[in-house]
From TrEMBL:
Protein name in UniProt: Holo-[acyl-carrier-protein] synthase
Subcellular location: Cytoplasm
E.C. numbers: 2.7.8.7
Function: Transfers the 4'-phosphopantetheine moiety from coenzyme A to a Ser of acyl-carrier-protein.
Record-linked InterPro entries: 4-PPantetheinyl_Trfase_dom (IPR008278), 4-PPantetheinyl_Trfase_dom_sf (IPR037143), ACPS (IPR002582), Ppantetheine-prot_Trfase_dom (IPR004568)
Reactions this protein catalyses: apo-[ACP] + CoA = holo-[ACP] + adenosine 3',5'-bisphosphate + H(+)
Cofactor(s), by name: Mg(2+)
Family under the similarity heading: Belongs to the P-Pant transferase superfamily. AcpS family.
Positions annotated to bind Mg(2+): 8, 59
NCBIfam families: acpS, pantethn_trn
Species in which this protein is naturally found: Virgibacillus tibetensis
GO molecular function: holo-[acyl-carrier-protein] synthase activity
Residue span(s) of domain 4'-phosphopantetheinyl transferase: 4-112
């Protein structure tokens, strides 16, 4: 049974501006494991896309729960690639649920959709 659906869309330029203005922005959004992937990316554009995708994914998850970011922290939500590169999400306190996620990028935007389902 589906418990929630969330979607988010973010401008890449907004994320890039936040990264440039606030050095702690990346630390606030990404978990340690996500930062390791972020740092390994060679291209600055790809770093912006990665961060924007994770931001959108975490916002979409929070929307799917019905609570939004506030009760949840960006640090409670972790989105890492599986062996094929597809995103997998793990969330503290939501281990009893199946969580499905999709992230996409365009030249100007990143978007993510999350579905939370009872196991």
């Amino acid at each position: 049974m589906i418990k929630g659906i969330g979607i988010d869309l973010i401008e890449l330029k907004r994320i890039q501006n936040s990264m440039e203005k606030n050095k702690r922005f990346v630390e606030r959004i990404l978990t340690q494991k996500e930062k390791e992937v972020f740092i390994s990316l060679q291209n600055s554009r790809r770093k912006v896309e990665f961060l924007a995708g994770r931001f959108a994914a975490k916002e979409a998850f929070a929307k799917a729960t019905g609570s939004g970011i506030g009760k949840l922290s960006f640090q409670h939500i972790e989105v890492l690639p599986n062996e094929q590169g597809a995103p997998l999400v793990q969330v503290q306190g939501y281990e009893a649920y199946n969580i499905f996620i999709s992230i996409a990028h365009s030249r100007e935007y990143a978007t993510a959709q999350v579905i939370i389902e009872e196991k």
